[in-house]
Amino acid sequence: MARVEQQTSSGQRFLEHVQQMLRTHPSPSSVNREALLECIQACLDCAQSCISCADACLGEKEPSRMVRCIRLNLDCANICEATGKILSRQTAFEPAMAQAILQACVAACRLCGDECERHAQAMEHCQVCAEACRRCEQACQRLLAAA
Amino acid sequence: MARVEQQTSSGQRFLEHVQQMLRTHPSPSSVNREALLECIQACLDCAQSCISCADACLGEKEPSRMVRCIRLNLDCANICEATGKILSRQTAFEPAMAQAILQACVAACRLCGDECERHAQAMEHCQVCAEACRRCEQACQRLLAAA
Amino acid sequence: MARVEQQTSSGQRFLEHVQQMLRTHPSPSSVNREALLECIQACLDCAQSCISCADACLGEKEPSRMVRCIRLNLDCANICEATGKILSRQTAFEPAMAQAILQACVAACRLCGDECERHAQAMEHCQVCAEACRRCEQACQRLLAAA
Amino acid sequence: MARVEQQTSSGQRFLEHVQQMLRTHPSPSSVNREALLECIQACLDCAQSCISCADACLGEKEPSRMVRCIRLNLDCANICEATGKILSRQTAFEPAMAQAILQACVAACRLCGDECERHAQAMEHCQVCAEACRRCEQACQRLLAAA
Q1: Residues of C37-75 as b/e, b for ≥16 C-beta within 10 angstroms?
Q2: What is the pLDDT of residue A8?
Q3: How far is A57 from chain D (nearest CA, A)?
Q4: What is the extent of the structural domain holding D41?
Q5: What is the CATH number of the domain that holds B103?
Q6: Which ipTM did the prediction report?
Q7: Chain B residues with beta carbon closer than 8 angstroms to that of C55
Q8: C4, pLDDT greater than 50
Q9: How many domains does chain B have?
Q10: What is the pLDDT of residues D50-62, one digit of tens each?
């Protein structure tokens, strides 16, 4: 019980820093802040989930069955990280750069989410990771539409 | 109002995935899960804050005054990212590897937090980033003590 | 003289490891190895040059004039890194993933190379970085055409 | 023959950019440039080799035997990348930051190099990666001694 409360407040503090950093920026971009915040968080969340899922797949009894999943997880993590970092920058914001990496991120999350979904029944970590991929794909799509 | 609710639920969902990934791992390490979760989140939060603070410093009217802060922000982000990723892996956990990067992360967060604190009165983003650095430093210390 | 020789042999050793890793892989992809090797190296080179150029711009007397260059350098570095890592993986190679990040990398290198070129006369580090961007853009284009 | 020449010149061009970026920096640190160049290259080389070795291990017939090697490869890559980036920055160089990450990098390269060496007879990619780890460990040690 106390444990759950502590974790929730930790999650809220996490949220606060991303949000506060965006709010206190001296020269914010014209990008919709709501969609941007959602997308930065979704990218960081998805990158972490993918790293974690690759590792969980490797810890399964038969990692040989999870080779494609591990590989796509690692690729997707690399792209989500890059996207989360680029979107975190507001100074001299370049729409063409954001668009390029967002499009790659949509593709990566779709490929990785599809693969994770295939294992979602058998492995709960793949189900969680598939959810993170779907949410990130949607957040990127929304930001592409808003930009 | 709706905005705040949406963001809060987004923050909680962020939390849920890290936590769920740890919970559903097939071969978890013996590291205290509470301290581990807190530390992974603090590292990811601090990395994002540092990237964001470097960018905010660059967007100030006189970035020449913020050169040391930008530089330490970028370094600290690199180390926090590496730490967050290494801690996200549970399979074949190697305490000596975790310890090595946690010690570097403590040093990085202290150096960067000290520098941000010098500008905290004048620039709110440096105050937010200093908080993120302090929390990450403490979370790393706690994990080092727990391991 | 001895200095130059040492560095040259160091550069050759760098080359040897990437090349050897590709050569000794148990299940290589069908991607043209020549083009792949060139592209991995160009991505790693460009990422390093961009990180270095952002830092050199920050060390100039008037960093305020270099804000856009620093920002694009950091973005381009993030994308080149991701591309170099994804291309370094041969197991369960997914052409759609490689294509997505290669297209983003072409765009990033063009944007960053164009910006660096604007400062190439005044700042030699921008000229060097522009060259690294052009080479990486071309290597990505070549790999996209070969795939 | 033509192939080898092209690759060699490509390797030399890789070298030239790192070296040129260091040479053209407007405010270089007082760190020994020779040792610094060697160390940046060794870190980038080792990060790439580790990513590649993790992937090659995953592509072996029985990846379940390579779990610890894959895991240490991924960790070592994360630390080498961070080290290579931090060392690439010369502006407002902070010795304590460099020292912290160099010490972590020495530990990471030793752990990963030891593991790779255990498989070096059976798997050539592990032998190549072990070499990259040893070289990086030594380059970091040399820079720590020179600083």
Answers
A1: bbbbbbbbbbbbbbbbbbbbbbbbeebeebbbbbbbbbb
A2: 41
A3: 10
A4: 2-146
A5: 1.20.1270.360
A6: 0.91
A7: 71
A8: no
A9: 1
A10: 999 999 999 999 9
